[in-house]
Automatic annotation (TrEMBL):
GO terms for cellular component: membrane. The lineage of its organism: Bacteria, Bacillati, Actinomycetota, Actinomycetes, Pseudonocardiales. InterPro entries: AAA+_ATPase, ABC_SmlMolc_Importer, ABC_transporter-like_ATP-bd, ABC_transporter-like_CS, ABC_transpr_FbpC, Mo/tungstate-bd_C_term_dom, Mop_domain, P-loop_NTPase. This is Spermidine/putrescine import ATP-binding protein PotA. It comes from Pseudonocardia autotrophica (Amycolata autotrophica). It is an enzyme of class 3 (hydrolase). The keyword Hydrolase applies. One of its GO terms (molecular function) is ATP binding. Its EC number is 3.6.3.31. Keywords: ATP-binding, Cell membrane, Hydrolase, Ion transport, Iron, Iron transport, Membrane, Molybdenum, Nucleotide-binding, Transport. Residues 1-237 form the ABC transporter domain. Residues 289-360 form the Mop domain. It holds the Pfam family ABC_tran.
Length: 363
């Protein structure tokens, strides 16, 4: 079977990674999740740097790990490439020699390895820099060479560990577009770890969200980010999310508060989340009357300037529901001034039922 098949259980110092995932041949899977969710542990298992307690891993039909039989292929023989945040190029080698290193280590003759390296340097747009050493390259140029080097051994799986995180704002869009083109053109199977929603939307076919070592959400990238079912995916998608159970009006939280909204493919009684954009939240000094169906009291935790708007980040009030913690409302600077908002102030958030979508969630 081509592609990647993984079922793994690993326990380390009170943390457990326990999941199953598949990556189809030529598919790019984005892995999202908060710090401590298990993303780095997953990369360690796939690369061979970590041995799980139980599990099996195949890449392109080749078994790299099977704890039942004791089979374990070491990292240097796995055929798994890595592009990390830092290029990690060999400082004493030219760009060409860096890219040719992988094929040469596989036993490819020098002339063939150099030819492959030149073709890849051309594909990433730095063929004219083949003779330069890393110290003579910019950060963006180094990352392009690092991408070529990761692809040169023709890996069955390419691991992308936040490859754009260390680039400056000017180099990031070009590198993102390059990754998309090179990976798509080569039909490369890849797993991308990122905290950036735009990376997932542009580069990935599918998204998996990890929390506490397990998968809490998965699906097509655009669907997951448009209809988040976990707090983390809602946050990176720029949406507010409230967990609860679907009911006739929309959603009921664990403490019995009812949020009115539009249920989307979710049955009454199922675990669900209510999702709405911060721009749909109105902010009031006094409890509002009239049309808003969903009104809740919050304490202002932070003010975050965002161009023409200010994002008010909420915290729970004493004795109030804890699910308001982290919710956001986008308001104008004039509204902030009029309300005299400062961290610690108590306000009312309100959102109309028509702005709230209720989706099912795992668990």
């Amino acid at each position: 079977m081509s592609g990647v098949e993984l079922a793994v259980r690993l326990d380390r110092d009170g943390f457990a990674l326990d999941l199953e995932l598949s990556v189809a041949d030529g598919e790019v899977l984005a892995v999202l999740g908060p710090n401590g969710a298990g993303k780095s542990t997953l990369l360690g298992v796939l690369s061979g740097l970590l041995r799980p307690d139980h599990g099996r891993l195949t890449v392109d039909g080749r078994t790299l790990l099977d704890t039942r039989t004791g089979e374990f292929v070491p990292p240097f023989r796995r055929g798994v490439g890595l592009l990390a945040q830092e290029p990690l190029l060999f400082p004493h080698l030219s760009a060409l020699a860096n890219v040719a290193f992988g094929p040469r280590a596989q036993g490819v003759p020098r002339a063939e390895a150099d030819e492959r390296a030149r073709a890849l340097l051309a594909a990433v747009g730095v063929e004219q820099l083949a003779g330069r050493r890393p110290a003579q390259l910019s950060g963006g140029q180094q990352q392009r060479v690092a991408l070529a080097r990761a692809l040169a051994p023709r890996p069955g799986l390419l691991l992308l560990d936040e490859p754009l995180a260390a680039l400056d704002v000017d180099a990031t869009p070009a590198m993102r577009s390059l990754l998309r083109r090179v990976i798509a053109d080569g039909g490369q199977t890849a797993l991308l770890v990122t905290h950036d929603a735009l990376d997932a939307l542009v580069l990935a076919d599918r998204v998996v969200v990890l929390e506490a070592g397990g998968i809490v959400e998965q699906g097509p990238a655009r669907e997951v980010l448009a209809r988040p079912r976990s707090a983390f995916s809602a946050r990176i998608a720029g949406l507010d999310l409230v967990p609860g159970t679907a009911d006739g009006a929309g959603l009921r939280t664990a403490d019995g508060v009812e949020l009115h909204g539009q249920a989307i493919e979710v049955a009454i009684g199922e675990p669900a989340v209510a999702v709405f954009p911060p721009a749909a939240v109105s902010v009031h000094a006094l409890r509002p009357e009239g049309s808003p169906r969903n009104v809740f009291r919050v304490r202002v935790a932070a003010l975050e300037p965002r161009g023409d708007t200010v994002r008010l980040r909420a915290g729970a009030v004493d004795g109030g529901p804890d699910w308001v913690d982290g919710l956001a409302a986008d308001v104008t600077p004039a509204a902030v001034a009029e309300l005299g908002v400062e961290p610690g102030h108590e306000l009312w958030f309100a959102v109309k039922a028509a702005e709230v979508a209720v989706h099912g969630r795992l668990g």
